[in-house]
Amino acid sequence: METGNAVSNRVDSGLGHYRVEGLLAVSVLVVLLVSPTTLLAFLSLGVTNWIALQWAYRRSGSGPYLGLIAANLLVWAVLRSFLAGELVLYGVAFLLLQICGNILNVFWGTQKPNASLRVYLLYLLYFPKILSGPVEESGEFESKVRSGRAFEPAAVESGIALIAAGLFKKIIIADRLAPFVSSIFDSPLVPDSAIAVLVSSYLFLFQLYYDFSGYTDIARGISRILGVELARNFDFPFLANSVSEYWRRWHQSFSRWVEKYIYMPLLLKRVPVGAALMGIFLFSGFWHGLGMKFLIWGGLHGSLVALEAILSSRIRPPSWRILLWFRRIFVLTFVSFALIFFRSETLERAMALVQTLFRGTWGFDVQLLGRQLSEESALIYSVDAQSAFVASLIIIAFELSSFWLRRIQSLDGRFSIPPLLRFVGYASFFAFVLTAISFSQNNFYYARF
Predict the structure, then answer these.
(1) Which whole-number Å values give the CA distances from 116 to 20, 143, 310, in the listed order?
(2) Is the peptide bond before 113 cis (omega within 30 degrees of 0)?
(3) Any domain includes 337
(4) DSSP string, 363-417
(5) For residue 275, how far is the Cα from the chain centroid?
């Protein structure tokens, strides 16, 4: 019998080349079917950057690399500002993050340019992560692809379980919360209820989490079935005891990217820690959009994280359990408040909601709100108390099973349920989710970035 190492070596040496070409062909086909415009744009950006990076590597000095990064940022700004209504480019901001990270790695000498154009294009076009990440480094991703596992039934079943969890998060939870959020943020009326704004900001935080982490689970599940293990992106962020910890648990691949390529270089330039932290969060706001509302969202986070960094070196709070829960509630409240600027269509709308939050009444009648929306010919949503109660029960039940879900995400997890019952369970679950899809018309939220 072959040992595990022997199988791995055989896969790497015998199938690595064919794995790259096969995954690239599948990725090109999938992106073509979803959006031919996206495929054309990504191929153009990929080929252009690959050629330019080969040229820059043979030159001396930082000019060619910095010019290449500036050109990519200009492309991103043009696509976001002038062509957003004409071109539908899914995940272009994630693509440019990976391109710029690869350029900086070559500039710093931590890796050489990809010798193979096919490998580089697969890195950019790999379809499970193309919409919303996770953001991978090119060297690590190439290693994962070339040394990918042979077919393993346990890995396939684990991937299916991840896909099931992701679909549940997206369709059963996130898409059920979306109408409540939209009833406040997208209404032509400015509500006079502070509680309505507060609750909607909380619900948007949960909607965003289950939408984004649901996509990540689906991407990692599909990739695991294909033998490529993508990075995790979330680690129970709602249990964070500080905003700094929240960002270490939320969108982890993006947090690692800004830490490596922005924060650490700023510190090496002797920029004060507080200013460096503010810089990475302002960049985060800029990355999400060019409007002032995104800069305010980033600036709020940057200010508090910088303050936490200053206080943590001077004050050590007691580790009382009740205090930890108060800190967690404060983190969730602060993050939800900042998301008012993130979610609102305009800065003026965000400021109006914030004004209501501090000056509005403390009554909240969801049925009255629904009638107001109908009278103003707004989108009609089901915003009754019963729906809210059911949605809350679904979220609580899902989170209580999170430890079981964490277990099945590991390839070392053992399934004690008989195979036939597991098959029936998966089939029933997917039938249930597919039925719910017909009532859901929401795209993944982060696909717009």
Answers:
(1) 10, 13, 46
(2) no
(3) yes
(4) ---HHHHHHHHHHTT-------HHHHHHHHHHHHHHHHTHHHHHHHTSTT----S
(5) 25
Same domain, 18 and 107: yes
Calpha distance 18→308 (Å, rounded): 49
Measured in degrees and rounded to the nearest 5, phi and psi for residue 365 equal -120, 100
pLDDT score of 428: 63
**121 shares a domain with 19:** yes
Phi-psi label, residue 91: left if phi above 0, alpha if psi -120 to 50, beta otherwise: left
Instruction: Say whether both 258 and 373 belong to one domain.
Output: yes
Query: Under DSSP, is residue 36 helix (H, G, I), strand (E, B) or coil?
Result: helix
Rounded Cα distance between 89 and 76, Å, is 11
- Do 336 and 174 form a contact (C-beta atoms < 8 A)? no
pLDDT at 18: 72
Distance CA 204, CA 348 (A): 19
Residue 226, phi then psi, degrees to nearest 5: -80, 0
Tokens standing for residue 365: 């009648």
What's the Cα-to-Cα distance from 164 to each of 227, 403, 410, rounded to whole Å? 18, 15, 15
As a whole number of Å, the end-to-end CA separation of the chain is 48
Query: What confidence score (pLDDT) does residue 240 get?
Result: 92
Q: List beta partners, residue 193.
A: 361
289 phi, psi to nearest 5 deg: 175, 160
Point out the residues of the chain with pLDDT beneath 70: 1-17, 82-89, 148-151, 318, 362-443, 445-449
Joined together, the tokens standing for residue 77 give 């700004």
Instruction: State the Cα–Cα distance between residues 49 and 68, nearest whole angstrom.
Output: 8
Structural domain containing residue 75: 4-146
Q: What pLDDT score was predicted for residue 301?
A: 97
CA gap 180, 191 in Å, rounded? 13
- pLDDT the model gives residue 449: 58
* Structural domain contains residue 299: no
pLDDT tens column, 327-352: 999 999 999 999 999 999 999 999 99
- The reported pLDDT for the residue numbered 222 is 92
CA-closest candidate to residue 92, choices 78, 106, 103: 78
Instruction: Residue 421: count other Cβ atoms within 10 Å of its Cβ.
Output: 10
